[in-house]
Amino acid sequence: MVMVISTMETRQLFSRTTEALFYNYKQLPIQRMLDFDFLCGRETPSVAGIINPGVEGFQKLLCGQEEVVIPIHSTYVVFFNK
Question: Which three-class secondary structure string do you get for 34-80?
Fold first, then answer.
């Protein structure tokens, strides 16, 4: 399912405020995305959370020189209900 945000221009898939959910915890791709956010000067990290079946909690990662806490939930349903 694709949702279109009305404030975005026609045919624009992503914006500077787009956030992503990662399925399964893979530290290297998530860290690379946070590094890219820092290099681009993004104000907030684009990683909104991690969906990892059977796991609940938080993960600390670096975004530039700051540590960010990213929530981990077992299903996307749990993530969207919080």
Answer: HHHHHHHCCCCCCEEEEECCCCCEEEEEEECCEEEEEEEECCHHHHH
d(CA 52, CA 37) in angstroms, rounded, equals 22
Q: Which CATH number fits domain 20-81: 3.10.20.30, 3.20.20.140, 3.40.50.720, 3.30.420.40?
A: 3.40.50.720
Alpha carbon distance 9, 26 (integer Å): 32
Instruction: Give the C-alpha separation, 41 to 60, whole Å.
Output: 20
pLDDT band for position 10 (cuts 50, 70, 90): low
* Model pTM above 0.85: no
Instruction: Tell me which residue has tokens 């960010």.
Output: 68
Which residues 6+ apart lie within 8 Å of 15 measured at CB?
A: 5, 8
